Amino acid sequence: MEEKKVRYPIGQQDFKTLRERELLYIDKTVYVRKIVDDGGQYFFLARPRRFGKSLFLSTLRYFFEGRRDLFNGLYIDSTDWDWVAYPVLHLDLNTDRYADPGMLDGVLDRLFRGWEEKYEIEVKDENFSQRFSTIIESAHKKAGRPVVILVDEYDKPLVGNLNKDKNFDHYRSKLASIYSNFKSSAEHIRLVFLTGVSRFSMLSVFSDLNNLNDISFDDEFADICGITEKELLSNFREGIGTLAAKRRENYDETCNALKLNYDGYRFAAEGSDIYNPWSVLNCLQKSRIGAYWNATGAATVIADALRDANIDIEYTLNAKWDLADLAGLDLLNADPTALLYQTGYLTIGDYDFKSDSVRLKIPNEEVRKGFFNDLLNAYLRPKKGTVKSIIEGIMDGIKSGEPEKMMRNLDAYFAGIPYDLKLQNENNFHNVIYVLMTLIGIDAKAEVHTSDGRIDLLIETSNFIYVIELKYDGTPGEALCQICEKQYDRKFLTDDRKIFKIGVSFSSETRRIEGWEIYPSIY
User: Fold this and answer.
1) Coil vs helix vs strand at 14
2) Are the C-beta atoms of 501 and 467 separated by less than 8 Å?
3) Fewer beta carbons below 10 Å: N end or C end of the chain?
4) pTM here?
5) What is the CA radius of gyration of the chain?
6) What whole-number distance in Å separates Cα of residue 441 and Cα of residue 37?
């Protein structure tokens, strides 16, 4: 008998549909039981987009509706749950873009009308908060059991309007009035479970509910969304084998490629490394390693925000944080780390038990390449068709020990900046150089501390070391003199590699490199 082909649930967020169509499902129902056994009333889970939050909420919905037939063969089916049905209110805010203030009213009215019809409620008040309160109470009385409320992407109207103050304030006020019912109607509620990208501390859901259990950083729930290494190898063997054959490599080599490109997320101090589920599913469906998650997001918006914030990119991407402080960040925090972590461009790297602190990192190659490309375009919008050959020239110059070639091509790159796009200050200029070098795979470090100061840019290869000082509206000679006077190359004097010292000047008026001096001279 022919073995049934694995069918991947690309974009499928409804648990019932997934099970009825016999699509691949990674069993996460152990976490359903953990939530039930916890005994708590209010839960919150933050994860980046496309990480399976909606599917988990859908799983909770059908579990509390008593649909045991959908859970046949899964972990939860083997437990002693009684499978009685609770009334479930699934408040899905992931269905619109919320470009103008009226869009949320449309989503809420559509949902509320359906519930009002189901529970035979006569609408006497047009106020959404009061209507929701009536729905919760009526559902409890009609069903004889307290209500389960599932809120999918509770913060989407806010996240989409972070830079639109009028819209943001409107949605904040509207959502706060809706969510206030979680406390005022507590006697009618069995469970509230919210998902989103970030905590917005100004909303009543976080300030009023003292017993809200935020499981976003809990070790116990670290693997609730996404794919672990064990889950990958036990559920995707067929797809990995097909991909390996197409790439003309062995199984282990393909596993390593998947790990390099899609693994690396970590959501708790002792959590597993997590693969991005959207990217893995698309990769194995199409049998091609590609940038699937990057294509679904708004990395350009985030890159523009980082440029405008005038921060040190290298420092931000390798920041060290107390775990409690990281968990307490929301997207209104001035520090861009919150934006990068909660949108999935940074994740937990190393954890220090003694200090209860974490060092953040970019999770994998898919994110790194896409993000650095968008960063580079945020600072410089080079002319199409010129970038590839110029970058190859920069790379060749660095690797072959030809600093003049490197600088000529770097100059050509900056020459491609549109005139109306200005690098506002020296920090932006430093960031551009660092991002460019990192993107092309060069070991570059910015602002390297020495005993007498800081090296603006240090580039190392197996055969060469480049110590570079950048002067914004200065001269190359001044920059080179600073390297020599402060002996920035001192710690490399016993190194067998050849050292090049390069002074570079950049003009804010022309937006171009004005000149450079190299020592030792190549002439």
Assistant:
1) coil
2) yes
3) N
4) 0.83
5) 27
6) 48
Phi, psi of 358 (to 5 degrees): -130, 150
Question: Count H helices, E strands: the chain?
Answer: 22, 15
Residue entry with tokens 């070790």? 219
Angle (CA) 237 241 246, round 5°: 150
**Given the structure tokens 């009385």, which residue do they identify?**
141
Mind listing the pLDDT tens digit for each residue in 224-244? 999 999 999 999 999 999 999
Q: How far from each other are the two terminal CA atoms of the chain, in whole angstroms?
A: 74
Residue 29, classified by CB atoms within 10 Å of its CB into exposed (0-12), middle (13-18) or buried (19+), is: buried
- Number of Cβ within 10 Å of residue 449's Cβ equals 8
Top pLDDT among 299 and 168 is at: 168
The answer to whether 266 and 348 are in contact (CB under 8 A) is: yes
Tracing tokens 């660092």 back to the chain, one arrives at 434
Neighbour tally for 310: CB within 10 Å: 11
Q: Which of 333, 343, 344 is nearest to 311 (CA)?
A: 333
Distance between CA atoms of residues 466 and 361, nearest Å: 25
Return d(Cα 204, Cα 178) in angstroms, integer. 9
Distance CA 442, CA 359 (A): 22
Asked if 135 and 124 count as a contact pair (C-beta separation under 8 A), the reply is no
Stated as kind and residue range, the H or E segment containing 24 is: none
